[in-house]
Specification:
With about 425 residues, the protein is an alpha/beta fold. The protein has eleven helices and 27 strands. The protein folds into two domains: about 130 residues, FAD/NAD(P)-binding domain; about 190 residues, FAD/NAD(P)-binding domain (3-Layer(bba) Sandwich), CATH 3.50.50. The longest helix has 20 residues.
Length: about 425
């Protein structure tokens, strides 16, 4: 029996789903390569950034995920070049991995719309390193304010600006406000954390633009109930170490968090095929790239046509893409990939959330319960589920966040 080698670049939702869906394929050797040794459950990354969870609660070693899959091998390495004609990938250490089928699932990073120098002042949230840096900045702002005797400086330090009101921005803003109003309210002697200002800045006319107008309005109401100042129709024009500028207006802040844009991994450009404005690879209906039927791109890196628009860059889409490609590898037909929308959810705070599942819209406590259940269910491993359930249960009963450690191990880009 001839063995076909499937090389998968990226151990995120899409790459891991593809690898696992090939379990039991006796004629297939799976090689999954990633520059990190862990799979990250990104939907809960903001919980690490706001001291609700530890990184190990939402990150799981890729080798452990695939250890029982006899036809799978994991390679820790950074891909620096891709030859779609081979196909093959080259690693930073010089090794070349040849493939019969290549699946590129390298994901995306945050984008600053041509202002990459802003990243050092306003980190985005895509990696564990990003989350730890944001956590460090949030907690350090309160510590610095406690030691200051300048009311103006204290006010600046206790002002937090979140740029971008998509799900990540909304979740971050709500969580920061909750930290100030509940978790830290009795921890300091010279400052009152309840005076904290959290400002959510959005360039469009409403928060959660991908949701219905009704849910968007409810999300805004819930944010404002938590004390978050929501500013829509506001474009950030400058970011520095002292805050942000919105047009001609200056907004001083001790901490700025970026959640306003997404750019595809630069690996997409190595495929020599058309890209969209965000750097995503424009793929064929079967998720392959033009002229190379054995090279597939899935997840956030792929621009997949879906009616009049494109498949959203969310984890269910990546998982479905990975499973679809695995089906093709197993000999399935190449009928066009069809994304099955299972709904969208965003949490805002304690018992506050919005959810959209088909025609069903939920907000408040029902949406929060649904969000909690779904995220627990999709975590990998019983240990992760148990730890997160315990951490959330403890936080819910005590209003405490147990991962309030200030660390320093970060540089722009989160590497």
């Amino acid at each position: 029996m001839t063995t076909r080698r499937v090389v998968i670049v990226g151990g995120g939702f899409g790459g891991l789903a593809c690898a696992r869906a090939l379990d039991g394929a006796d004629d297939v050797e799976v090689v999954l390569v990633d520059r990190r040794n862990h799979h990250l459950f990104q939907p809960l990354l903001y919980q690490v950034a706001t001291a609700g969870l530890n990184p190990s609660d939402i990150a799981y070693p890729i080798r452990s995920v695939l250890r029982k899959q006899s036809n799978a091998r994991v390679v820790l390495g950074e891909v620096v070049d891709i030859d779609p004609d081979g196909p093959s990938v080259s690693l930073a250490d010089g090794e070349v991995l040849d493939a019969d089928t290549l699946v590129v699932a390298a994901g995306a990073r945050h984008a600053y719309f041509g202002n990459d120098e802003w990243e050092r002042h306003a980190p985005g949230l895509k990696s564990v390193e990003d989350a730890l840096e944001i956590r460090r900045r949030i907690l350090l702002a309160f510590e610095q304010a406690e030691r200051s005797d300048d009311p103006v400086e204290i006010a600046r330090l206790l002002t937090f600006v979140v740029v971008g009101a998509g799900p990540t921005g909304v979740e971050m803003a709500g969580a920061i406000s909750e930290i100030a109003l509940t978790t830290l309210r009795r921890d300091f002697r010279d400052i009152d954390p309840a005076t904290t200002r959290v400002v959510l800045v959005e360039g469009s006319d409403r928060v959660l633009g991908g949701y219905s107008a009704g849910l968007s309005a409810k999300a805004r109401t819930q944010l404002e109930a938590l004390g978050v100042k929501v500013r829509t129709g506001a474009i950030v024009t400058e970011v520095d170490e002292r805050g942000v500028s919105i047009g001609d207006e200056r907004l001083d802040a001790g901490t700025v968090v970026w959640g306003a844009g997404v750019a595809a991994s630069p690996l997409g450009a190595l495929l020599g095929t058309p890209l969209d404005r965000s750097g995503r690879v424009v793929v064929e209906p079967d998720l392959s790239i033009p002229g190379h039927p054995d090279v597939f791109v899935i997840g956030d890196l792929a621009a997949v046509a879906d009616g009049d628009g494109f498949v959203p860059g969310v984890s269910p889409a990546a998982i479905q893409g990975g499973e679809y490609v695995a089906g093709v590898v197993r000999g399935g037909d190449r009928s066009p990939f069809r994304y099955r929308d299972k709904g969208s959810m965003a949490t805002i705070g304690r018992r506050a959330a919005v959810a959209e599942v088909g025609r069903i819209e939920l907000s408040g406590v029902p949406a929060w319960i649904a969000w909690w259940a779904v995220h627990i269910a999709f975590l990998i491993g019983f240990r992760s589920r148990a730890l997160v359930m315990f951490s959330w249960g403890w936080s819910y009963l005590t209003f405490q966040r147990g991962a309030r450690l200030i660390t320093r191990a970060w540089r722009p880009g989160g590497d």
